[in-house]
# Entry
Amino acid sequence: MWNYEKRLQYPVNITQTNPKTAQVIISQFGGPDGELAASMRYLSQRYTMPYNEVTGILTDIGTEELAHMEIICAIVHQLTRDLTPEQIEKSGFDKYYVDHTLALWPQSAGGTPWTATYFQSKGDPITDLHEDMAADAASM
# Structure
């Protein structure tokens, strides 16, 4: 399949907690244009692509998006580790904390849980590739 190296391609080294920033960045994990939706989009659409080269590219992109999830998780974890109860409440992170403590859970910045409706897989190569481009443009 592929080799997993137990290190981040781009190491994350955040030294100060910031739960407000974490609440925004968590959308890149489980929001509508986040890494979870992106990985599912590419890995699902690959099966109906008529050309092996395109299938291979979508597989590579989908697995790369999974790796991006690891980086986002490291960022959110480092922004929220060792928070005091006062910091949690003052920042508004308490609503998330009640259900998930400091665990990573896929949701948008607004608190909407991740859903498969964030991506589309129609089986038409042109339609699917346009959807991919639109989602990638929105996440930039």
